[in-house]
Amino acid sequence: MVDYIEHEAIEVIDAIALEIPDNLEVAVQDPRQPTSLYKRLNIKDADAIVVSACVQMPSLASIPMVEEMSGLPAVSASVCTTYRMLKALGLRTTAPGGGTLLSGHLDEVQQVA
Fold it and tell me: Which pTM value belongs to this model?
């Protein structure tokens, strides 16, 4: 996943891989697990935290908590997918509990720009 993100010209400062080969096992992970995992990351000079790059990993509950604790925007594969789907449909990019990306504030910034 790090290679994929860096291929998109996004610098990855640090990463933690759970390396769970079974998708069903990934799906039953505690959705609050990322709130403790992110603390092991080097986030110095980071612009955001990717809480989960796997749509099978339940992590939505962690997004607002990681943002509050770290002071950085936090995203996941599911949050980013939802954002792009809403944009493609011409809808407001707002979803409760979806963190900064799904707060609707980016829509407001784009309207002002």
Answer: 0.82
